Amino acid sequence: MNTNQLKRKSRSETSDAFWSWIFMTPTTLFLVITALIPLLYSVYISFFKLKMNLPNATPSYVGFANYARMLTDKTLRVATSNTFLFAFVSVTLELVIGLFVAMAFCSDRRWARLGTSVLLVPMIMAPVAIGTLWRMMLDGNTGVINYLLGFLGMDSVNWLSNPKYAMPAVLFVNVWQLVPWVVIVAAAGLKALPGDCLEAALVDGASNRQIFWHIVLPMISPLLVIIYMLRFVDAFKVFDTVYTMTNGGPGTATEMLPNYIYKQGMKYFDVGYTAALAIAFVVVMSLFTAIFLKIRKRVEERVQ
Amino acid sequence: MNRKRKTPSSSATERVIGDFAGRPVRVIIVVVSLIAILFPLYWLIANSLRTKTDYLANPPILFNAPVTIQNYQKILIENGIFKEFTNTFIVAAVSTVIAVVFGSMAAYATVRGRIAKKIRNFFGLWFMIQKMYPAIATAIPVYLVMRHLRLIDTRFALIIMNTSFNLPLVIWLMMGFFEQIPLEMEESAIIDGANFVQRFFRIVFPVTTPGIIASAILAFVGAWNEFLFAVILSVNRSKTLPVVIAGFITDRGLEWGPMAATAVITLLPILIVVWALQKNFVQGLAMGAVKG
């Protein structure tokens, strides 16, 4: 390389660095203004007592009172345990069912492609529409689900207004909504499995079941861990379907954190407390994200 | 090397995975899962074509004898759903375009930018956290600020917020696609004297078109269906279709027919787009999870 080329190279490097920052700028500004600043504003508000429906009332500083209130908030405790239960059960079911469906659909034939098109529907339908559709189908009097279950000899159930059945119903709808997502992602993982390996096992006389337990499952398990974590974090944010199906009811049977926070803000207009709840929620979610990133890193290292 | 043998598309391995518990079980799983999705879809469409006495009939009517379009007439003419449809389309389209352009730029700078590795990792982590954290956390402050700026009930406010959700999604996906581009490709462009911007537009952008399409559809579908901020930030003028659907659950009772008709109108356009670009959509979903 002669001096001329060297000069040109260093000049282009400075220009590259400059342009790299330019590329980063719009997104950074956008996210700082629309996400980071509101979050910090939330922290600030959480130290005040402020009612949104009284715009002229001056907010009064209350220190950590909003956070202290959380400790004695009984509904919050119910909402928290409901959310954990919901996330744990729904994601576990989605993963197991999703894996089996993905395997059954593992084919390059036409029927599998068309089947995948059908599987995409719940993913594309507005979650609000999913909630209202299932609310209609699960209706205690006119719902088609009770009618169909009647053929199997089952009694009519008030799915959404009976505290005993409301949570299973909401869980079921979430499973319906998100199994397809697990199927699509798991199918991509199955397609990436080395075919030689499976064929070799087949030649050695292993049965399909043995191959599943000893080869397919171990090879796909890192992906399953990632799917589980992604869905788990996501399940905590469930809002649209709960809001439209039960709005947390009956009583607090299906009350979950996002819906509870929404109610505190948009129904009771208790801005200070809502902000404190939101901050606590973000802290917990960040913790989950950190754990997720750690696990993902470890999984990736294991794969390599 | 024969590529066919590397992928399990050969029928033998397909059978191994597909028939993991025997052929009959496989058929049952496929049939049951298809019915589980198609029946609710049928029920939605069927109810959108029913009269009030029919959709509230007890026991329910499984098959429509007379088909009526009165629910569609009601929402199109009486409720003027066209306005909400336009709102939804504008909000989804504009926020998608902004997010794809700025997001892929930021993703490229994060993956291949000439910035210290540590700083790039920091940005990558930040974008990731943005994608994970709950939208509800900023709902109240955003509402207060928008109210202060008199932006409540404007499409502008919804475009801003949907872009904010879509940016991390696009970045996250595009980082995965950019990482797959071989470094040699860009190195040879550097030797040819192409600068950062030229490399991005002339070399990287063309080969990542599938990724761009994938993230655009995912962002568009997300914004099209977004509900939380749409319901908080709109009163009347900037209402979107999901807000209308939820609005049918009223104290006076549930209007299943018009609700179903609105849901069908909401679903149909994006379903057509996603089916037309199914390969990209599926690839995008997979990339979002498996990204290296």
What does this structure look like?
The complex is a heterodimer of chains A (304) and B (292). Chain A is mainly α and 304 residues long. Chain A has one domain (60-303): MetI-like (MetI-like fold), CATH 1.10.3720.10. Helices cover 76% and strands 1% of the residues of chain A. Chain A has helices spanning 3-45, 65-72, 74-104, 110-119, 121-124, 127-137, 144-151, 163-191, 195-203, 208-235, 240-245, 257-266, 271-303; strands at residues 48-49, 60-61. Chain A has a two-stranded antiparallel sheet. Chain B is mainly α. Chain B folds into two domains: 3-71, no CATH class; 74-290, MetI-like (MetI-like fold, Orthogonal Bundle). Chain B contains 15 helices and two strands. Chain B has helices at residues 11-18, 23-48, 52-55, 70-78, 81-112, 117-132, 136-148, 155-179, 183-191, 196-207, 209-225, 228-233, 241-247, 256-276, 278-290; strands at residues 249-250, 253-254. Chain B has a two-stranded antiparallel ribbon with strand order 1-2. In chain B, strand 1 and strand 2 form a beta hairpin. In chain B, helix 4 packs across helix 14 (256-276), helix 5 (81-112) runs antiparallel to helix 6 and helix 6 packs across helix 8 (155-179). Chain B is globular, with a radius of gyration of 24 Å. Classes of the chains: A mainly alpha (304), B mainly alpha (292).
List keywords for this structure.
heterodimer; A: 304 residues; mainly alpha; MetI-like fold; two-stranded antiparallel sheet; 13 helices; B: 292 residues; 2 domains; two-stranded antiparallel ribbon; 2 strands; 1% strand; globular; disordered N terminus
Poorly predicted runs of chain B: 1-9
CATH architecture classification of chain A = Orthogonal Bundle
Number of DSSP strand runs of chain B:
2
What's the CATH first level of chain A? Answer: Mainly Alpha
How would you write the strand order of the largest sheet of chain A? 1-2
Main sheet strand line-up of chain B: 1-2
Round the mean pLDDT of chain A to the nearest integer and report it.
Answer: 88
Shape of chain B: globular
List SSEs of chain B in N-to-C order.
Answer: HHHHHHHHHHHHHEEHH
Low-confidence stretches of chain A: none
Overall number of domains of chain A: 1
Name of the CATH first level of the largest domain in chain B: Mainly Alpha
Instruction: Please state roughly what percent of the residues of chain A sit in beta strands, choosing from under 5%, 5-15%, 15-25%, 25-35%, 35-45% or over 45%.
Output: under 5%
Structural class computed from helices and strand pairing of chain A = mainly alpha
Summed up, the helix count of chain A is 13
State the share of residues found in helices of chain B, binned by percent: over 70%
The run of helices and strands of chain A is HEEHHHHHHHHHHHH
Main sheet summary of chain A: 2 strands, antiparallel
